[in-house]
């Protein structure tokens, strides 16, 4: 990847700086919000299953809206779609803040708010993913994707850590801060004037709506990368149980929870900065499989750990390895998809991500309720290692992939 000053200067002269600032504020706000919701639900219920239900409540709207999101992202101005969705998230923050101040929140009310978060979030990520390539030249896109990933991870790091610290002053403080950050993101996006015009509107047929699914099915390497990421995080994800680990196993309180939530993003940020300077030019597929295996091993270490320092280290390694998978998957999706269907493909990709994250949280909550938190996490890590072995045989094209460039 060319890291010349001319590329950096070229990016500064595009709407990209505004885009990446808005994206950072968005992830900052959302990750503060999820930390507070998780901790408050566990405060109310002391139930691992309830933590899983929060993940399920966020996943179901995202899954049900997949085809709608892709249609909207490809037929309407993407910037406005993101701004409207963030407006809904801002309203959720206000509702949660008022409920916290009046002590009127119940588990059911919080699950309804989580569902609203999931519905709004269903539009934000795939639409922003499809929007970015329209703001920069194709030659600048790899660098823009890497810098975007770095900025996104910065928001993910700061959000949970600050959210955990602010929670000591009350949940309402976290929700008000999140609402302010969402507002900042909306205002920043509104300053982008060079918006890609709405493309030619194709007839709204079943084939058009299902175009994203058909495209992914036709690309073995893309399907393999997306599904590998899905099953590894679905089975190996432990983030839903972090409030339980923070309170009952590691005894570190809400600030410790914020640090635990931020640790994977620290690893991911470090890896994204490294990959921005040293891109994968050889054996990209094998590196992805190796990274997912390390993800599984790190999950096992975290599940067995009773040391806060060791748990943080395991989560940092987990985040760094997951970023390799993210870079491979996002590069394959963005660089090999025509702009006219980026919204639909990004929506399908997003629901895979949502499945692995939110449905993975539900799976973790259920297995923790059955077997206990630590055994559930360890079992998930072992299953992730098994997925790696099976997927290497099912998707040889991905295993043999060398470069992340188009057709590489």
Largest β-sheet summary: none
Q: Structural class, from helix and strand content?
A: mainly alpha
Please report the first level of CATH classification, the CATH class. Answer: Mainly Alpha
How far apart are the termini? 14 Å
Low-pLDDT residue spans: none
The CATH architecture assignment turns out to be Up-down Bundle
Number of domains: 1
Q: How would the global form be characterised?
A: globular
Helix content: over 70%
**According to CATH, what is the topology?**
Growth Hormone, Chain: A
Features of the shown structure:
mainly alpha; Growth Hormone, Chain: A
Q: What do these coordinates show?
A:
With 408 residues, the protein is mostly helical. It has a single domain (10-192, 204-399), classed as MFS general substrate transporter like domains (Growth Hormone, Chain: A, Up-down Bundle). Helices cover 80% and strands 0% of the residues. It has helices at 5-12, 16-45, 48-64, 66-75, 78-101, 107-131, 141-167, 171-190, 206-209, 211-218, 220-236, 242-249, 253-277, 284-304, 308-335, 342-371, 373-394, 396-399. The protein starts with a helix and ends in a 9-residue tail after the last helix.
